[in-house]
TrEMBL record:
Name of the protein described by the UniProt record: MFS transporter
Primary localisation category: membrane
PROSITE patterns: MFS
Cellular localisation: Cell membrane
Major facilitator superfamily (MFS) profile domain residues: 45-446
């Protein structure tokens, strides 16, 4: 909803804005006169909310769902794929609608807070359903609900960044968000590791952690009353709902190019990461089971490299007031890492290539999100919808790339061999193209 001309822009709320600006921190952004800088308390509570939601959301993917599938349908691991796929599709369909509805919400509690709380309730209930599920179908239904609930919360936390953050703070917040997204799966697995004997606690403890983080954030955030905001002129009907998932690239070219760049980059990432265990087994002449330890080492090192890229890129892009160059560097570094892995004759170079790729991933993802916030169309009336559409640039490659990859693996391969070298070169090409598209085609961001 657009603010009326006489209304001041929303700030961090009565609690979070009660303190004076910190020393050396101006009350308003130098490069965004309409949005004042938010307090450090807002940033850290936001980051903690993201951390909590990802713990609740990612722990089932990492371990809890697999445990329940094994309990309910032994020797049917394929059910895990069906369940996660159905949940991903549900989130794809519902998050833009929830974002659009939040854009139109007028309440004394603001636009986003009611949906953040509702999504959290749905997410926690879904975790309880999965914990108590008597069969695979109920377990799948629970995961669909979890994707709808927690997926809505994740999308609206990004929309809140569009509502509140000036340009000078978007990079650092995106970088910090990237760090906690990397840490959340580790924390979730560690948390769940001691609870595997109790299904209820296995799902509920991570869920409670996420719920508390969101509730604390919402209570201290205290969004401004949105009842006085000007609603979008388009009526809410089936026609407008059908347009929730689309936008006109001609009206929002920078957003469209940034979306395409992220889409291409993520295609490369999924090509690279989906078949890591099989690639290592092929390159090291071992079985998939035998390379599990190596996969764990690469994953651990990858988390550190990704965090370094996210924090370094996010903070530097704010300080230097440059975004596109960092996105391009991220795409180039990722591409170089994928090429190193493709040609590596042994483990040392594979580890080096994986570290470079993850460094590039952190750099690209953090700064690209900041670019998205900079070029977001219709920020006052449709931020929730457009941030959900931006999420498609990640979710679509996650579904499509694994389906396309086998065709590349079969090219030039004889017998039962797979052409992993070609796949990794294509991954490098996609990630490089993603960086180039953002750097060369997005015009309104430096």
């Amino acid at each position: 909803m657009a603010l009326t001309p006489s209304e001041p822009p929303p700030t961090g709320g009565p609690i979070l804005d009660s303190a004076l600006p910190t020393a050396g921190e101006p009350a308003e952004s130098a490069d965004s006169g309409d949005l004042p800088q938010v307090k450090g308390s807002f940033i850290w509570l936001l980051v903690m909310a993201i951390f909590g939601v990802y713990i609740a959301f990612v722990t089932p993917i990492a371990i809890s769902l697999a445990i329940r599938v094994e309990q309910l349908a032994p020797a049917h691991e394929e059910y895990l794929g069906y369940i996660t796929g159905a949940g991903g599709l549900a989130a794809l369909l519902t998050t833009p609608v929830c974002g659009m509805l939040s854009d139109r919400t007028g309440s004394r509690f603001g636009r986003r807070s009611p949906f953040l709380l509702a999504g959290t309730v749905v997410g926690v209930v879904a975790l309880l359903v999965m914990a108590a599920a008597p069969g695979i179908l109920v377990l799948g239904l629970g995961w669909v609900l979890a994707q709808v609930g927690w997926g809505t919360v994740v999308s609206l936390l990004i929309a809140l960044q569009a509502d509140r953050l000036p340009e000078s703070q978007r990079g650092k917040v995106s970088g910090l968000s990237g760090v906690v997204q990397q840490l959340a799966p580790i924390a979730g697995v560690l948390m769940a590791g001691g609870l595997t004997g109790n299904n209820l606690l296995l799902f509920l403890v991570p869920g409670v952690f996420g719920a508390v983080a969101v509730i604390v954030f919402v209570c201290l955030l205290r969004e401004p009353d949105s009842r006085g905001m000007t609603a979008t002129a388009e009526p809410l009907d089936l026609k407008s709902l059908s347009r929730t998932y689309f936008f006109d690239p001609r009206r929002s070219p920078d957003f469209a190019w940034n979306w395409l760049g992220k889409f291409l980059f993520m295609f490369g990432v999924i090509f690279n990461t989906t078949f890591t265990a099989f690639f290592l087994a092929d390159r090291l002449d071992m079985t998939v089971k035998e390379v599990s330890g190596t996969v764990a080492v690469l994953a651990g090192g990858g988390v550190v490299a990704t965090m370094l890229g996210a924090v370094g890129g996010g903070f530097l892009s704010d300080r230097l007031r440059r975004r596109r160059a960092f996105v391009l560097i991220g795409g180039c570094v990722y591409a170089f890492g994928a090429v190193v892995m493709a040609v590596a004759p042994g483990l040392p170079l594979i580890i080096l290539g994986a570290a470079l790729a993850n460094l590039g991933l952190g750099l690209f993802a953090a700064v690209d999100q900041a670019v998205m916030l900079d070029v977001l169309p219709e920020r006052e009336t449709d931020a929730g919808r457009f941030t959900a559409i931006y999420g498609f640039s990640t979710s679509l490659p996650q579904g499509l790339a694994p389906l396309v990859a086998p065709a590349f693996l079969a090219i030039g391969a004889a017998g039962g061999d797979k052409n992993y070298t070609l796949l990794y070169f294509i991954a490098a090409t996609c990630s490089l193209l993603g960086g180039l598209v953002v750097a060369l085609r997005v015009k309104s961001v430096r």
